[in-house]
Amino acid sequence: MTKSYEFNWQKHLPEFMQEGTSFDRFDEDPYIFEPNCRMKVDEYGFFITWKIEGKEGQVLECSLINSIRVGAIPKDPKILSSFEAVGKTEADLEGCIICICSGTDLVNLSFMFLVAENPDIARKWIEGLRSVIHNFKANNVCPMTCLKKHWMRMCFLTNVNGKIPVRGITRTFASGKTEKGIFQALKDLGLPSGKNDEIEPPDFTFDIFYALTQKICPRTDIEELFKNINGNKTDYLTVDQLVSFLNENQRDPRLNEILFPFYDPKRAMQIIEKYERDEELKKKGRMSSDGFCRYLMSDENAPVFLDRLELYQEMDQPLAHYFISSSHNTYLTGRQFGGKSSVEMYRQVLLSGCRCVELDCWDGKGEDQEPIITHGKAMCTDILFKDVIQAIKETAFVTSDYPVILSFENHCSKLQQYKMAKYCEEIFGDLLLRQPLESYSLEPGRPLPSPSELKKKILIKNKRLKPEVEQRQLESLKKHMEAGETNTPAIIMGEEDDTENAEKEAEEKDLISEAPSLSEATSEKETSSVSQSNAVSSGKDEEQNNGVRKIPDDEVTEISEATDATDISEASDQDNNKKGVDVAEDSEEALIASYQYESATTNIHPYLSAMVNYAQPVKFQGFDVAEERNIYHNMSSFNESVGLGYLKTNAIEFVNYNKRQMSRIYPKGGRVDSSNYMPQIFWNAGCQMVSLNFQTPDLAMQLNQGKFEYNGSCGYLLKPDFMRRSDRTFDPFSETPVDGVIAATCSVQVFSGQFLSDKKIGTYVEVDMYGLPTDTIRKEFRTRMVMNNGLNPAYNEEPFVFRKVILPDLAVLRIAVYDDNNKLIGQRILPLDGLQAGYRHISLRNEGNKPLSLPTVFCQIILKTYVPDGFGAIVDALSDPKKFLTIAEKRADQMKALGIDTNDIADVPSGSSKNDKKGKGKGDTMKVSVTQQASSEMAQTSNSINNNTTETKRGENQLCGRHVTHIHTVCSLSQTAFVAFQIPH
Questions:
Q1: Among 535, 612, 767, 966, which is disulfide-ready with 509 (CB 3.0 to 4.6 Å)?
Q2: PI-PLC Y-box domain spans which residues (predicted)?
Q3: From residue 491, how far is each of 100, 327, 415, 476, 610 by CA, in Å?
Q4: Domain ranges in the chain?
């Protein structure tokens, strides 16, 4: 960064954790019992370490730990007898057990249990460990810090003699024939180098380790860059040479010069003094190639503006003005059909930053009549509603203080609905938002409250009775309770609110057919036995999976009731195929085909209804109807196909709808494998709750996790200005610069990879851009394959140029490395609005967005203002055969850039808005005036730059105001000259 910036990613670590505490440690599966382990946490909070006399040292990486909580007393007789052998009874274990849950994703989890001497020690360690593991900034440390972390791991993994085995070092970097190079490097550094040799820990300093990595993975790419800067005349850089390099390469030319001044000799000297190790060079104001390499690997050269990882956005806007991280069918660990339900998923999803989870509620079996959560009768296992509510209470506000929305799909009888409401009331207590805030009454025209005003509040999203019906039933219920009567009043049991508040529920019908008809997309009520011919519908909120057939109780493995909050046995399986009811592949299609739809109930208990306020689902009747009603707390949901249909025909109206009230998108029912749709197309329209299957770490989830890593990983991201203001019009399919926004050009040149694999494999790098359809470029830019080198492949590609990114605020860059079998090695999602220009090391993540320790990609990123190439765009437009397409047809064609097939787009009512602007709605048969659009492109660029001056002033205190353009190009059909001038800062 141009100004010195301290990336304060370290959390304060209590001394007692660094010094260590004795615990008894056990694992349930496989069984392990280790008494009297001294557990420590290093000063950086990287690892939990422990060592038992006569055994090897062990570590658990904190970045892989998902949750820490009080553990339940084990039920396994073998474990209990082990405690009896060391003099501890079950009573001695009460409140003393710490459960540590870890994994590389949200599903494949491991559990380790520590038993403290007393509950007070357990409580202190739980609090201390939570501050360390929920440190999202630590996932963004620089490559140099990652090297230090890896060195520390090797130092902790000592053998039974307390020494570092050479075998462990070679295993870190190489395998097979490449081990010889490691042995030679160790020998060159004066260290023991035999395969069975050992190294004394004091001899294996970080400086030695760093020198070892430079020998194993020499940075010839940085050496070449170093020589280019100094003209290959000396073995150092002068202050002036460093200043020139920093200003010409490491600084985004669009940056505001006041907020981000140019580098000067004083700043260059600060860099030299910090990173140069040669004292003689430092005194002379010179930098060696080693110092230059250390600088490029430091926090000061992070690929993103590190302050974006803080909570930096304004959080006082209405809820509808934010993207909200949202989960679909949260309880499932795998497939939608025959899968396993797990309480643990709610903990993991909420701790990852998600702020909207889904609960599919059904009447429980047996005498206790406990409400359960499951995927209808789609052969998925059951979990108890009250256990889920308890898990939500424990984890809702651990990593984020901002509101959590519970999306109920309610199939319960009124008796069990009352139980649900009482559980929410009793377990959540003051966390539950029972009544609207005084300043935000539930009246037409009243905006939603902000995330700040709803801090640490849980909102219920469920159908609500008409106010007069709800009031009448509540009064009747109160009279019965005052009279001491235990039965439910007949008025409550019999009266059904069959009104527009009933929201369409139809995901499972998608299991049979994927193309809804017009009548099916708008109808509200369905019977419980729907034929295949009319088995698909649209704007549903809560989804159901039921009615496949009556499943005998002995065919369904129900998860046992877990009265303790930490009964984690349900999440310990590693193989999803074994988690639910076994469904033979050849019979699954037949079962899905026989699936019968059963809608969610519209017969709501008044006690539950009264808990619903700012998230009231209603049937979607059209954008014009929603605009006329002007009820901000009403929201509708759409499966992905119906959502795409409305985007195709009414994109601008969809954006305007999302300025006022919330929408939820969910996967179509045909995704029985729990795959995800591309969320980007719906973010482009301002949809707030783009709900995904969090259990599937696919590309869509990677985009979601990468996007929501910004703003402190709080689960809320403020939408761009033009997607919030009622006086602005935005078309998410625009191919010309958006009014008030400056288009950008982004170039990525991939030079090399570091520590990508310890195997001699081939690797290549893909660089993709996701954003508006016109900004999206997928599967087009990839490097050549470098064979037999997973350590330090040199790609040295020509730059990949994304020439025109018309909306950088919504665009993300994806850099991914694959092996020669096209298997993902690592990936990284980088939102463009926080991307830094220059030579950068991109630290990679696994498919579940967990940081990989060493793998990086070294590349140069160039960012600048987009400048049109004369009249080229106009000429191209005149010859474009798509000029005779309708608006809707063209949009469907544009969606292909995001990998969306036309078969995935549902037909929806064409007259959904009375204000059919710019060829929408009734006008969707209009021909596209491509020539006019192209000729206005450069004029819009001009307007964007002028308008941006005001926008920049408004946002100077936020990072979104950091960009100011320098070049202004004006062009029209009657002008052939370009006028360039400087925009004042």
A1: 535
A2: 608-724
A3: 49, 36, 13, 8, 16
A4: 15-134, 143-216, 220-308, 319-464+501-722, 744-865
